[in-house]
Amino acid sequence: MDQFDKSIELFIENAGWMAPFFFLILHLIRPFVFLPVVAVCIVGGVAFGFVQGAILSYLGLMLMSAIIYFLLERLPKFHRKMTKLKERIFPDRTLSVGQVMLLRIMPFVHFQLLCFYLMDMTKSFKEYMYYSAIGLTLPAVVYTAFGQSITEFPWYMTLAFLFVLIALFLVIEKYNKTRALHQEN
């Protein structure tokens, strides 16, 4: 994986003015070559610097979200696969928009599945893209700026970071359930 990252970085550096375009294409083909979002954002930070890398990563993730929306809408087989995956990973659970946004920050969480959840929660493409725009800002910035640091953490720091995110996820879930109970009464 490290060698692949270095070859992508070298390719982007040698691409000149076309490098941002190739980087956006990399974001679009990322799911088909099984690259995690964090790896591509790290490459963006290394190749373009923090600001331009974060902006390009954000744009690439937004494009990928839009494409996933249309693929889920137009390809019933893909929709069925995502439904099965959703039932396998989170059976009988409804996630809130806040939880989906928090899961976006966690490395190696299935990007298309989160898009599927968000699509189920929203009523239109415009609303879906609005929540995608908000939810993808933090991962693009965090992975670009701190991605290298996160991957270099000792295993116990990575585990602690993961537990903090899981705890925050569960707090949001409890808050949503409590709020729903109060609204019913």
Automatic annotation (TrEMBL):
Keywords: Cell membrane, Membrane, Transmembrane, Transmembrane helix. It comes from the Bacteria. It is a multi-pass membrane protein. Residues 36-148 form the VTT domain. It is found in: Cell membrane. The chain crosses the membrane at residues 21-48, 54-72, 128-147, 153-172. Belongs to the TVP38/TMEM64 family. InterPro entries: TMEM64 (IPR015414), VTT_dom (IPR032816). PANTHER family: GOLGI APPARATUS MEMBRANE PROTEIN TVP38-RELATED. This is TVP38/TMEM64 family membrane protein.
